[in-house]
Amino acid sequence: MALATVLLIVVCLPVYAAMTGLSLASDLSVPLTFITFGAVLVHLAIFFLKKRVHPVSQLLVSVLWVFTLFAVLISWVYREITLSPFSLMFAIRNLSDTYHSLVHVLGFSGLIVAMIACVVLIVLGIRAAQGAQRFLASKLSGVRLTGAARIANGAVFCIGMVLLISSVVRASVLLARDQYGRVRPKSAMPTDLAVTGKADVFILHIEGFNSKYFFPDDGETEKGFHPKVPLPGFKTILENGSGIFFPLFWSNSFPTYRAFETILCGTSGTPGAMVTSLPDWDPKARPCLPRILHEAGYKTEFLSSYYNLSFYDVGSFSRDLGFKNSAYNDQLMKPGDRKFSWGYDDCAFYERAFEHLEAKYRSPDPLFVYLEVSMHHAPFSEPKYPKAHPYPSPRDYGQAYANSVVEQDHCLKTFWERYSRFRRPNSHLFIVPDHSVALEKEFDIKDLFGVSLLYVPPAGRREVFPPGVRRGVSASQAQLVPTILELLNERPYKHSFAFSLRGKERSRGERECHYLSSPFDRLVVKRENETFGYLMNHHKIVRYVYRPDRSGRLRLLSETVENLVPLDRFYELYDCWE
């Protein structure tokens, strides 16, 4: 039995990998399930032939069953929390990062308790599986079958196991190809990556901002702001910096680390694993903005308000993207600076970040600086600046969220003060949220993907970049790279929205189209006048339409276009960027 199981592992795993094109470590539960069914098949076949099996075989099958169940559970929990597939090999290669991430989520004592609980549950599970096998064997051993009955029962058993295993393999292949496999990620990255301009570029990456909550009428209120929730930080930058504000701007996915990839690499249309996590991604062959600018002579700097860049492997990820310098925690902050659950106080971080930049960069070399803050974070229950709260006693999640956003906005005044003192005349600033925060119970595109964008052009260039609110302009995070390159090189780029920054209309022949992905759930294509989605768990294409309910409130409804189709079919019908 043990030898048969080992042979199954040796033979079946390469076959499985060849069939799915999937790295076996990216979803450990699927190949483990396949192996377990094969082991059970061999185990039961030996039992029917010999009427007994060795205790070692019982133990081996029990261990396989329990570890399969644990692999399924761990993969599911990991995917629900991180919105990425679990990769065992990645975790092994980055043990330090894995440890720091677990400690952050569970705490050190929680990690110890979780490990002890896992060991106890595994032992109990193995004992229970052994007991179940012994019970089943005791019941079957007393059954006397004639030769014909034994053949008939054996045939039924074999057919049933073949059907069961084939269904597992079919589901595995479909899962691998549709959700984890070759999903053909889309990129707005231009082919010509030469940079001739030398203007500084700053990107301030702020935390979750729901455009639909703050601008329910798509910015039709004065200055595009919510009348009941003041955002003085945004208003200060918009007015004093002659800024340009997009009340509705699309985030192409979530959570935060996917925003890094979209903003800096121009990728979208990736409902499965991130593009930069795929085995065939080459950061030199497919460079992102930091590497492009570094090779053009820029000093590139990544500054984070979080405590440890090992969390979610952000540190090595930023280096892979091309940032040559990074600073965080005690490399930036000082003793006594306020800390919260998800990072340092934004106000203190802005002070320290610009102190760092002022001390380090005195040469005329152009700069690309990416600043990331994270004080404002779910569950929005930790007050930082309560005097700024529009809702002193929040009654629901939405009001608690609004209070947290206002706290983040409160510190933007500090950012603007320090940035204004530091910036050189020819500097471009983009303030962009990483993603929205869904506040509605039902799926809604603006609620899930709608954020905002604030752009501050170089000083004294109002005639080129007319300030104000850009309403009705559809643009997304994935278009930031071509837009920045167009601003630096002063020539048009495909997929750029620099035309809107200059106050002009979109060129004829260009169409608005965006990929918006809810990882491992759905992929949405948002066009000018129509929206389509692919539901990954149902393999179904739908059309989204807004229709009024009985109360007159518009609700987003879905109409089925095609059922049981692969993701490739959706790309074929609704491709944005051919």
Written overview of the protein:
The protein has 18 helices and 17 strands. Helices cover 45% and strands 15% of the residues. A hairpin with a 3-residue loop joins strand 14 and strand 15 (531-535). The protein folds into 2 domains: 2-180, no CATH class; 186-562, 3-Layer(aba) Sandwich (Alkaline Phosphatase, subunit A). The strands form 4 sheets. An 8-stranded mixed sheet has the order 6-5-9-2-10-11-3-12, sandwiched between helices. Strands 13-14-15-16-17 form a 5-stranded antiparallel sheet, with no helix packed on it. It has a two-stranded antiparallel sheet with strand order 1-4. Helix 2 packs antiparallel against helix 3 and helix 9 (232-240) runs parallel beside helix 14 (397-422). It has helices at residues 2-20, 29-50, 55-82, 88-93, 95-106, 108-141, 147-180, 211-214, 232-240, 256-265, 289-295, 314-321, 346-360, 397-422, 445-449, 480-489, 498-501, 567-573, and strands spanning 186-187, 200-206, 244-250, 267-268, 299-304, 325-327, 339-340, 343-344, 367-372, 427-433, 450-456, 468-469, 513-518, 522-527, 531-535, 540-548, 554-562. The two termini are 53 Å apart. The longest helix has 34 residues, at 108-141. The chain is α/β, with parallel strands linked by helices.
Tell me how many strands there are: 17
Terminal Cα span: 53 Å
CATH superfamily of the largest domain: Alkaline Phosphatase, subunit A
Poorly predicted regions are 1-11, 13-26, 173-182, 218-222
Number of domains: 2
CATH fold descriptor of the largest domain:
Alkaline Phosphatase, subunit A
Largest β sheet strand count, sense and barrel closure: 8 strands, mixed
Strands side by side in the biggest sheet: 6-5-9-2-10-11-3-12
Radius of gyration: 28 Å
CATH class of the largest domain: Alpha Beta
Percentage of residues in helical conformation: 40-55%
Instruction: Indicate the structural class.
Output: alpha/beta
Strand content: 15-25%
| CA-based shape | globular
Task: Please tell me the CATH architecture of the largest domain by its name.
Answer: 3-Layer(aba) Sandwich
Question: Averaging pLDDT over every residue, what do you get?
Answer: 78
Q: What is the overall number of helices?
A: 18
